[in-house]
Sequence to fold (144 residues):
Amino acid sequence: MRVLNRMGAVLLTAWCVTACGPAVSPEQWRAGQRLFAGDTPLVARMVGHHDVLPDMATRCSNCHQTQAKAAAPGFAPTLSASSLLTDTARRGGPASHFDAKALCQVLRNGIDPAGVMVNQSMPRYEVTDAQCQSMWVFLVERAP
Fold:
């Protein structure tokens, strides 16, 4: 029963995030969109390397899609409100879901909310808290 209540709360949150309208400014959503698309470059490195990657290699959109129908199967997970907010077992770890803080953690050091390391092919980013928040807003809020 507890699991069903928690699942219901997560699904209601995911629905409201996408259906209740943006709780943030359109400027913040657009800033997140620009970061995700690479229009605003991010500093990133590959695990174990000191060289900064070229801007075109750090675009989240190179590997991730934001809509399930457009996802490239088997490459990188689709990033959307439902995929991030729903408890899901990833990479053999326990079920977990993302929040803004967990997104920042995975971007910076490659550790997901369940404490599992993501693939080393994902760059590690030097992102500010404001950049993380904008990217989170873009991924989970509907477009303004």
